[in-house]
Structures are given as C-alpha cells and as structure tokens.
User: What shape does this take?
Amino acid sequence: MPTALVTGVTGQDGSYLAELLLGKGYQVVGMVRRSSTVTFERIQHIQDDLIIVQGDLHDQSSLVSILEEHKPDEVYNLAAQSFVPTSWSQAVLTGEVTAMGVTRMLEAIRLVDPKIRFYQASSSEMFGKVVEAPQRESTPFYPRSPYGVAKVYGHWITVNYRESYGLFSTSGILFNHESPRRGLEFVTRKISHGVARIKQGLAEELRLGNLDARRDWGFAGDYVEAMWLMLQAETPGDFVVGTGETHSVREFCEIAFGHVGLDYQKYVVQDPRFYRPAEVDLLISDPARARSMLKWQPKVGFRQLVEMMVDADVTRIGDTSRV
Ligand code: NAP
Ligand code: GDD
Assistant: This one.
C-alpha cells in the first residue's frame, strides 16, 4: 500500500485529493496546522480513514519529523496562503508560507528520502499580466500579486531541486478550479452562496468587484486526478492543467442567478472595495501537454460547474434555515 502525505488536507483540493487517494488504496497522511478551533469541515466524512498529523510549512523540523515517521512515497504540497487579496495585506506571511514553505518541504525530502515523489501546487496566477494567450508551460511568467510572486518562487525552486539534486519534483500549473467546497471568499463561491441567500430571502444584493475579469474555471474534483497522474508519470516535469475555455465573472453571475430564475443585473452591485491593486484580466490555458502525456481531460463543463455550486448552496442554506 503506497503512502502519500498531503499538506493542506483541510483545504478544498486537499479534501478531494485525499478522497481520490483513499479510493486508490493509499495510506493517506494529512498534515494540519495547530489551531484552537477544528478546521476539518471538508474532511469530516473521511477523517477516520486518514492519519492526521500536526505540522506547519513555517516549521522545518515538523516536516522532517513527519517524513521520518510516516515514510511517504509521494508528497503533495497543497498548503499555502492561497487568497490573492490577502497576499497584499499579509505579503510577508504569504512569502513565508507560499514561497519558502516549498523550499522547507523540498529540503526535508532531500535530507530524509530523496526518492520521494513531490508535487507542487503551482498556479496560473503566475502568468498574471499574460504575455500570450492561451498560456502553456513555456509562457513566461508576469505575476501581479505577492501571491503570484510567491508561487513563481515555489515553481522555480521545484524545478531547481529537480535539476540540482535529481528529485522527482513536479510542478502542476493549475488554472482556477472550484467546487461546492470552495472557500466563501473566492468569487465563484461568493456568487453561488450569494445567489442562494438572495433566493431564500436572506439578502437583497451581492457586492462584487471587477465583473470583466476572465478565468479558465474547472471542477476541483477533476483537477486532483491530474495531480495524481503527474506523480505516476515516468519523469517529473511541468504541466498546465485547465479547460482551455475562458469566461468572465459577469457570465458566471448570469448563469448562477439565471439557474434560480433571477436576473443578476437586479442584484449585483459593483463595489470598489473588491477591486485589486493590480488585476489579472485574462487567463486561458492550453492543456495540450497534460492531455497527451497524462491522458487527462476535465469531465465537468463550465455551466455544469456553476449549477452544481448554486444547487449545493441552495440546499445547504435551505437546510440551515429549516433547523
Ligand atoms: P485552500 O482551500 O485555501 O487550502 C489551503 C490549505 O493550506 C488549507 O488546508 C490550510 O489550512 C493550509 N495551510 C495554510 N497555511 C499553512 C501553513 N502555514 N502550514 C500548513 N498548512 C497551511 O486552497 P485550495 O484551493 O485547496 O488550493 C490548494 C493549493 O493549490 C494551494 O497551494 C493553492 O495556492 C493552489 N492553487 C489553487 C488553485 C485553485 O483554483 N483552487 C489554482 C492553482 C493553485 P487551514 O485549513 O488550517 O487554513
Ligand atoms: N474574490 C473575489 N471577490 N474576486 C472577485 C470579486 C469579489 O468580490 N469580484 C470580482 N472578482 C474577480 C477578481 O478580481 C479576480 O479577477 C477573479 O474574480 C477571480 O478571483 P478569485 O476567485 O479570488 O480567484 P483568483 O483568480 O484571484 O485566485 C484563485 O485562482 C488562482 C489560480 O489562477 C485562487 O484559488 C488562487 O489560489 C489560485 O492560484
């Protein structure tokens, strides 16, 4: 039975990845950081099947101890400060976790067992002010936020440890992926949750920022499969993962409100508070390499994703208001 360590197991992707790995017969070690309240909402249903260990990307010796004790075959580094606006208000912390945290884990692997296969959760946010469209593995980076800058560091240190030490360290450059488990502050979930609240009469408007930003949005459940496939490949590398389609925040609103019979224009209010100091206007992937080398392709389309998220929030809010 192979063993996998998943950092960020309490996050959106961590929960889907842990489910996938358990289904494949892995022993799954989930790293969580110490907190005064429990943050296990997304993994409650599989908690008994996981080995939960305490560790933090700030703390190198906790990473070394976990690797020594659990001897994983694969490490999926999903932990990060992942919310772009917070990266301006907590730029140093974002750099410590999202950038230096990667080096701490790679160093731990190099010292404890260099045969461990390593996945780094890189991001389309690295393309930022894009220099070509669509974006592929060879597209130069131009990050537009401290988060994007930190991810560029994480990407290159992953490449560097591959080239310097021969580690099996792979960088998955994933475009935005969403689900009913997405954090409430990200725009897709903010919209699906807002729609559900308005539909239930609990809110009268939804305040958003830039409606013209375009993203290549896919379903998180599909994307964790690509992560696993990357670590089963013969050689490590860099892989762009996305749908190859792009849609605006406005289109997301139109479908989400329309799905419950509402017109978004009556409810969405543009609020400068949600504009960013520097915006990423357009992301669209060219996932040809992942398609040909990993035989990966997404199963859930854009409309299906939006409707799945709205349906989940309508049900969730309906259940809560009946209690
Ligand atoms: P998420 O829901 O925000 O989850 C982040 C996880 O990191 C949480 O489990 C969090 O723990 C953990 N974490 C934060 N700081 C930590 C620290 N210092 N030490 C240990 N754990 C820490 O993010 P996600 O959407 O699942 O994304 C997973 C990864 O993929 C992230 O690295 C993200 O930057 C990257 N990514 C995401 C997307 C996307 O569209 N979702 C696209 C490209 C790349 P708590 O629960 O305790 O907060
Ligand atoms: N969060 C948020 N809230 N975004 C808004 C809002 C709002 O009220 N209104 C408009 N937007 C726009 C943002 O300006 C941005 O252009 C777009 O919606 C998407 O924002 P987010 O959902 O916060 O995601 P992101 O693209 O900044 O970052 C996500 O995707 C990256 C991959 O490209 C995160 O998951 C990152 O961790 C990930 O790396």
About this structure: The longest helix spans residues 91-112. The mean pLDDT is 98. The radius of gyration is 19 Å.
